[in-house]
Amino acid sequence: MTQEQKFESLIEGIVSKGYAVCDNFLTPNEVENLLVTFAQRYDAGKFKEASIGKKSEAHQESSIRGDEILWLETDSINDAERMLLDKNQAFVNYLNQTCYLGIVDTEIHFAKYAIGKFYRRHRDTFQTQRGRVLSVIYYLNTHWVAENGGNLVIYTQEEGLEKSIIIAPLAGRLVCFESEKLDHEVTEAFAERLSITGWLLNRK
Ligand code: OGA
Ligand code: NI
Question: Does the predicted model carry a pTM greater than 0.90?
Answer without folding.
Answer: yes
